[in-house]
Amino acid sequence: MRATSVNTPDWATVTGVPYIGRLTSGLHRPKRAVRGSDVAGVVEAVGGQVSDLKPGDEVLGSTWLVAGAFAPYVAVPAAQLVKKPAGLTCTDAAASVMTGLAALVAMRDVAQVGAGTRVLINGASGGVGTMAVQIAKRLGAEVSGICGTARTIELVRSLGTDHVIDYTKEDFTQSRQRFDVILDNVLNHPSKATARLLAPGGVLIPNSLGYTGGLFAGLPRMARAVLMGRLGSTTVKLVSPAVNRENLNALLALLESG
Ligand SMILES: NC(=O)c1ccc[n+]([C@@H]2O[C@H](COP(=O)([O-])OP(=O)(O)OC[C@H]3O[C@@H](n4cnc5c(N)ncnc54)[C@H](OP(=O)(O)O)[C@@H]3O)[C@@H](O)[C@H]2O)c1
């Protein structure tokens, strides 16, 4: 391992929120002591059936929620690794995998963003948000991003966001604007209020368990969003990225292109 990154599932597991999650992750402490999914490093050894990677190759990839990357060595399925180009640092690579795959799949596959699609991203300054802004712009969208400090507003603007909404000054659910796609990485408003901003045929992508503590944290809000999609007329879709070479290479191509 040369570099890895801390994602919300790592933080949630070590802090034990939401408490209900401890039933699977461990009642008093995490069952898997070594957390971490994102991987950037150098191949030390390969299994007998692996022919396209060899010791010494620089790679990036992910154990995807199985954990174990916060360690000097990690075992990763070869199908979840791709060769890392020399021009991409291990730090940049490791910081991009979970957030990048989620953003890529959300924008390209789930929302099928194209030229002129009006996209609203709540939590635009976070790991997923900053990736989603750039990928949506690359796909030709008109992007509005919500964030809330002077530093993050500047960051989100610098990524090419067309409209930046400061959540400390404005409640975006009161906006008269309409969007074809809303990626909600925060879920700090009820999805019913957020969905009101959808244009006809629009899609809402709730993408946060709101790890704020408590027994269930944001789980009920997420469940209500899914239910709203099942029972009502709003299209609600979740992001569940496949961690495979096709997606990793697509992400790599975007990273390499800047
Ligand atoms: N589906 C998947 O496969 C997948 C993969 C990765 C992550 N996720 C989920 O995606 C979510 C975001 O992850 P992340 O890595 O991007 O987290 P992150 O880096 O911590 O970003 C969270 C963002 O939320 C923003 N925020 C906080 N309070 C806000 C408010 N009141 N209104 C609007 N924005 C607010 C923050 O913006 P400011 O800094 O401007 O306050 C921050 O940029 C998490 O819930 C995570 O579990 C899902």
Give a verbal description of the structure.
This protein folds into two domains: 8-95, Medium-chain alcohol dehydrogenases, catalytic domain (Quinone Oxidoreductase, Chain A, domain 1); 100-236, Rossmann fold (3-Layer(aba) Sandwich). The chain is built from nine helices and nine strands. The chain has helices at residues 8-15, 22-25, 90-94, 97-110, 127-138, 150-158, 191-195, 219-231, 245-256, and strands at residues 38-42, 58-62, 81-83, 118-122, 142-147, 163-166, 179-184, 198-206, 235-236. The strands form two sheets. It has a six-stranded parallel beta sheet. The protein has a three-stranded antiparallel beta sheet with strand order 1-2-3. Helix 4 packs across helix 5. The relative contact order is 0.15. The model has no long low-confidence stretch (mean pLDDT 95). Residues 7-8, 98-99, 102, 122-123, 125-129, 146-149, 152, 167, 185-186, 188, 207-209, 239, 241 line the site of NADP nicotinamide-adenine-dinucleotide phosphate (NAP). NADP nicotinamide-adenine-dinucleotide phosphate is lined by residues 7-8, 98-99, 102, 122-123, 125-129, 146-149, 152, 167, 185-186, 188, 207-209, 239, 241.
